[in-house]
Request: fold
Amino acid sequence: MADAVFLALTVITIGSAIAALEMRSLIYGSIALMGTLGGIAGFFFLLDAPFVALFQLAVYVGSIAVLILFTVMLVKRELIFKKIEDRKRKFAGIGLMLVVMVSLGAVFLDSGIKTITTDEPAVDFRDIGTDFVTYYWPALILMGLILAGSVTGALVLARREDVENDQRVS
Amino acid sequence: MLEITSTPLVIIGILGTVGILLPIISIARKEQGSNTFYAIIAFAALIVSMGYVGYQFLEENVSPSALFAEDVVVDDAFGGFFAIAMLIVALFTTVGSFNYMRKHNSPAVYYSLILLATIGMVLVAYSTDLVMLFVAWELMSIPTYILVGFRKKNPSSNEAALKYFLFGALSSAIIVYGISLAYGLTGSTNIGEVIQGYSTLDPSMLPLALLSVGLFIAGFGFKMGLVPFHQWLPDTYEGAPAPITALLAAATKKAGFAATIRIVILGMVVLHLDWTLALGIIAVMTMTIGNIAAIMQKNISRMLAYSSIAHAGYILIGLAVAPHSSLGLQGSLYQIMNHAVMKGAAFIAIAGIVTTLAVTHIDKLKGLGRRMPVTALGLVIALFALAGVPPLSGFWSKLMLFGSALDAGTALWWAPWLAIAGVLNSALSLAYYGWLTRKMYFEGETEKRVIEPKSVMAIMIISTIFLVGFGVYPEPLIKFVELATPVLSLGSMP
Reply:
């Protein structure tokens, strides 16, 4: 049963990711991205990590994907760059991806990973929280700085320089 | 237990606070044009951080190079060494941006992002945990993606930012994959515990451990600009704002080496993996491709970008022979410190030239020695130091690197060939550095002197004092390198 669900999730996740890249319409591309993010949430459920899965759904599918969707709808279409097809590069990229995936798969199959069984209980979300404020606390501060840097940087990049400050206020 | 006064935490405190406050002050003052004000605050924060690192060394509050620790960061000499190198480059970048940012908007955010990226770089060097290392890696990367694309209306800046972002995101994904494998195999993200776990791994799991080490090399290799992960680098260095190129070439690259030494080299020693030949081949390819491509460039930024790739190859020589020669890591660290100053100074000189003359084509640098004498002299000294010309500081680090390859010759028959390849490549690099010097000093006759940016002149003078001073009297720097070099053995584990 778990194998079938895993395969179904894999098809949904990878299929939606390819669709998100290939769709000419940004709206459909954004919706396909939601499929990828939702598929990843499914993997977390399958791995006995419901807390992370729900966060994935709430944060990525629920807010980030919706935010992207709204942004796409608000941006003028003519401002989006044109898609330039280069078939040679495209097939080279697909070929390289297949080589990497087959090589990684071969390494996994060649290892003893299939023999591993574990009966350890799933990690409690309280343990994750405790770790974050004890062992990982400096990393938590850095995450805050990453968010601060990302937000201020994004604001500067998104700011229109042809609009004066007084116009912006009014 | 992590002390609140330990160097990495104090650096987070100082640079993080100032980095967050700068944009807030900018909003409060409702002004965009006061570049000098924000630059001075950022400069002061970096000087205080640098002073604290130095104070910790002088007070002997820094532990010997440990590589492992129970916490997510360790206040050791290895991290301190990299912190000093990266803070020097961040200072160069900040001072070099004084003039550059006069013509651009949002100076507060610009300097804020430099400070945040500096925290990331420094913390990568201090990290002893994979999660901490990855978070620091991202803190280093995300602000630099934005800084590279800071000239929003310039198509080459946009292209540079997009390429850098895509390759950076790919490298981050590869690193996360490596971390997930390491965690899956050992049940820990602490580097010491991961490597201890690797040493007692079931033989059937070794291919996965090997894969995780390979993924780390590939992930860090993107930032280091190793061949074949270097494609993004020339376009990004050419399109980025000139002072930011100094930050990328001289500092973020070093973070890649710090992470590699912390994880990969130790992992290889513990796993008894003989990857020395593979690293040796990558080193030779990186040096040779970088130098050959540099000779063919007409744009000075692209030339130095390829030269930067070549230098990653020189540094890799030391890492390749590290398991067989104690001089290997020392040579790499020595070259890392010198390269930070040499390349930082060279790119800041270019920033000065771009700001004053608005040229980057090499043919248009004719007579630069007369037009901008201080900048040209500082640039030439940095270039000759990069080539390893005695008595400049770059000579001693290259001597140590090539000496380590000869030293490892007793265990690895091919190691002396690395030294030969290194010497030949240095000679090759002298050809294009010499050509550039000829253009600046022996071509063009009618050019008149222009006013040089004082901030750039100050950096040229400081870098020249460093390169000539430590070239004539290298002992203090060599002792510092010895102090910072970790011992590659299981005995150094907690």
About this structure: Chain A touches chain B at residues 104, 107-108, 110-113, 115, 135-136, 138-139, 141-143, 145-146, 148-150, 152-157, 159, 161, 165 (CB under 8 Å). Chain A has a mean pLDDT of 84. The CA atoms of residues 108 and 116 of chain A lie 12 Å apart.
